[in-house]
Amino acid sequence: MTLHDSSLSPGEELWDNSAELERRCRLGSEVTSLSRSFSTEKSEHNFRLSSNLRYCLSITKLVTIFSIVVLCSVSLAIITSAQPIHVSLDSLDPTAMNLTDFRDNALLKLQVGGPFMTGMEGVPAQEYILIQVEQMVEIGSRRKRVQQILHNWTIPLHSKRNDQILTTRTFEIAPISINVQASLLDNQVVPLSMTHQSLYVTVETQVVIAGVILAGVYVLIIFEIVHRTLAAMLGSLAALAALAFIGDRPNLKTVVEWIDYETLALLFGMMILVAIFSETGFFDYCAVKAYQVSRGRVWPVIIILCLIAAILSAFLDNVTTMMLFTPVTIRLCEVLNLDPRHVLIAEVIFTNIGGAATAVGDPPNVIIVSNQNLRKTGLDFAGFTGYMFLGICLVLLTSFPFLRMLYWNKKLYNKESSEIVELKHEILVWRQTAHRINPASREETAVKCLLMQKVLNLESLLRKQLRTFQRQISQEDKNWENIIQELQKKHRITDKVLLVKCVSVLSIVIFMFFLNSFVPGIHLELGWIAVLGALWLLILADIQDFEIILHRVEWATLLFFAALFVLMEALAQLQLIDYIGEQTALLIKAVPEAERLAIAIILVMWVSALASSLIDNIPFTATMIPVLINLSQDADVNLSVKPLIFALAMGACLGGNGTLIGASANVVCAGIAEQHGYGFSFMEFFRYVLPLFRVFAFFNTILK
């Protein structure tokens, strides 16, 4: 990026002249208020409001959100969480609990922790725990009499008594006692922890509350009322308050356990690796080489980038792929005078498509292949990958021509000269740098004032260029050979020693990612591998100023994912995901038998795609698998489970393209682009992916 030197070095007397310093600080505060209105380019449909109306809307927004936060905080403060009861069972010593604090309309939520087998409830086993919930009901209209009703819950035990697994079930009754028995092959003792809670809201009401909270979060993100990270935090707080209100308040330890730390560690480690890698000039060098290979033509480069991203995502994590591709794409677009946002959106779409091609490319596929009940039906790694790979190849062949029609040249090129585009981006970078300085001392205040003066000078220069510039749509540059020579002189590898270290560490990290997917003897998760790789590179690179590297980490993105994990788990506790699965099963059963399989496949795929674009596809996939298995085992339905599982995988993986927060790769790409000054909003992403999303769904429906 070319730096303009207008009035950047006013002389050393600025530091000693207090009057001049105060004037600069006042100027800086004025520019700060001005930059807030200039920093973000709003959509074309936004209309202009008067200053008084904007002030009223701002105050209304502030008061409303703050009131909701205070209300949620109070509900969490006055309501306590249930304490677990620890018991030890053997075959000869059952345990009974009498419950007298339940109202007539209450639901019983029972959570049991012990050495259980995951995903095997209801399957016959030699060793198991039997929980009997007893209820006394009155029957008869005239001469009422009391009848005892028992609800049995069987949980199979694992042969190894090491792991403690939590399992939960809700009973829509008002119980009076709970009996727990153990069926063991020997005289061993099984330790259990039990928690029972009274829920005073029906399942339908809980689903409505969860839907309102989810809709509120999307309203905050779509209309950019607050930053998406703050919107996720507000949504998670509201969901936790709703759980407390219905009587199911989780404690802090439980909420922390909801966060997927492996994903956060993967993101953090890769951010450190990419931050150090960018110091070598490798991304600029790759951009120039790509421009040289394409001979100045845009679409060959875009197609190659999208195809490579899709292939890598079939074997690597989608997040890792986008973290490696986003910086290269941004530099390439700056060289070609393209708008990086359009190219990044295309890349992230094909990244999500490629991740669905194999059993290890996307988390929903991993969950499906690792399910023991599905393996018993003959759904193995090779068969699943072969079917999904064929379907995704056909999707890719359809997507490229449609993408070419959607992204025409006039939509890709910047409609201004490269000098004006570069100047605008430089202004944005200087402004962001000034905002990140916390003026804790006199010298830091002076530096911030200097930067704001720099912004003012550049904005004045920009206005002059805009007044004299006649807008023309850029065409393919015929003098690309001369441009290549200039770019090669300007963009070259700056630190070859550091580049060798970065390439070596990154190659080892990616190789370990592959081994983790295919070699069961590797006991390091992806998060561990990324963090260890970052630690290796930090030592080899001999980083002296560690704060510079930490500034390159997308802390807002990490916090967004942490809040999103809590939000999705809280919505699952409010029965939202279970309700979607149950209603889907009921709709399939209502279809005539002659058309049931075709309708079931279409319905499962569409519901999965729509749900995965709104909520996290990992808990949704885990919830839908037992629903589909039970549906296939129902004699009245008579459906094969394999086509339904393939429809679930297609919908859950490709549904992430539906919205900006539908997939982790989308959020990571948006965060890195925003850090480089090319952020795109929820609606900008949605406007470009909606036509492709329709094509994916239609084509997969025909494929089924």
From TrEMBL:
Does the keyword section mention Protein transport?
A: no
GO cellular component term of the entry, any: melanosome membrane
Q: Name one GO biological process term.
A: melanocyte differentiation
Q: What is its main location?
A: membrane
Highest classification ranks of the organism: Eukaryota, Metazoa, Chordata, Craniata, Vertebrata
- Name this protein carries in UniProt: Oculocutaneous albinism II
In its keyword annotation, does this UniProt entry include Transport?
yes
Q: Which domain of life is it from?
A: Eukaryota
